[in-house]
Amino acid sequence: MNASSSSLSPSGRAPQSRLILVALAACACAIAPALIAPLAPIAIGLLPLAALFAFSNPFLLCLGFVIFSFFRIHEAFPLLGPLHIPQLLAAPTLIVLIWHVAVKRSIPIYWRAEMTVFAIFFVLVTLGLPFAANKPISIAYWTATYWKIAVMTLAIAWLIRRPRDFALASHAFVAAGVAVASVALYNKANGIGLVEGTRVTIARDIQSVLGDPNDLSLVLLFPLSFAVSLFVRRTSWISALFGLVSTGAIVAAIIATQSRGGLLGLMTVFAVFGARMIKSKALLIAIGVGATMILFAAAGISGRSSGGAAEEGIDESSMGRIFAWGAAWRMATTHPLNGVGIDNFVPNYFAYSAHWDGHNHAVHSTWFGVLGETGFPGILVFFALIVTIARSAILALRTLERDKAPMPARAMAHAVLAGIAGFCVSGTFLTQGFTWPVYVLLALGAAVANFARREDHQSQEAKQDRESAEVGADIRQFKPIQRGT
Fold this sequence. Notes:
With 485 residues, this protein is mostly helical. The protein has helices at residues 10-36, 40-56, 58-71, 73-76, 85-103, 113-127, 135-159, 163-190, 213-233, 237-257, 260-277, 281-299, 316-334, 349-352, 366-402, 407-426, 436-477.
């Protein structure tokens, strides 16, 4: 058993477990008062039932926190805003994790290669905080978001262990994606919050993350691979129908954002699944080219006021990206070891850009964003992280297919592979290096790879038992020749 996929031995697990527990406990104690105080009246009334449910269902608690934090459901549906659901789930999630890991010891802890690479990247980002160009901004983002992503990454990887967990996660992500897509399509139909007159957004008036069409397309792109996987893999006819309808809704919403990065990511997801279903590569490429042209026409990209056909030569949107990428490169060459610090690209755009139009701009590229904010060591480790996740998903899918493992696990492995491929393509035009998608894919990929390892081990043991039984049967059937006296 190799080091990248083996579970930690009891002697090696204890020190790492204690460090993780101390960090989780410290974080929970630090944020609990601020999060719980405003919600005290409601919490007191629901505390007994909520506590019973939380401690009995740690995976559901973590899944709920990730969905509300990433999909911003409470911003898409303003009626949920006053409940402060992400804050309400944050401290209980940490407490429940500590209980199950430290006290009850009901969560088996394992470690894989992708987790090691992620840990290195997390350490690089953290060590860069004191050297950030704007320390308060970096520290604020790290404390408000990034450490939660890190904790939830490990939690999801350890909590997903059974086929039904994979099925539940897939359906939950797709349902959240459909919820956001429904609001996007409603806004498009009613002309609510449109950017440049045609590009749909959500909750732009409250400065939500969903208020940027590129970020909205990113949020919608994540559940697409799971929706397509539910339909293609067909764990049941209900799941297949749900996946088909959800795929249509999510695709329509991505088209409504008119995000070129989102459309390219969408096509990449379909290409990964198409490669399995269509054996002829020439036919696959022809279908892909035709579908891309149809999608871009349906999205009305040429009619965009920025990046449309009305602009001659290199359009304004493309030039903005080129200037932003140049600024990221100068940030990295000026601060090669640590960059300008996490979440520091926009505030430092003016100082490093060769062109100034009176406004700071986002980098609109995951790769250049990571390069500019973490330097050359950071981008190299980030590249290694992506490669490790993709390789792990490919190997897990092969193992699960060979062993004919339960379909929900195979569907998850396929969705992770398609998701990371879509991330790589869309990441060229969308900023997602320090947001949820890639880290959730990391967690799900680690979980399904660990499941594949266990399934393969059980399959090998079963094979050995069958061979031993066959040999025993042959020996019992053998009758020695009796010599005459």
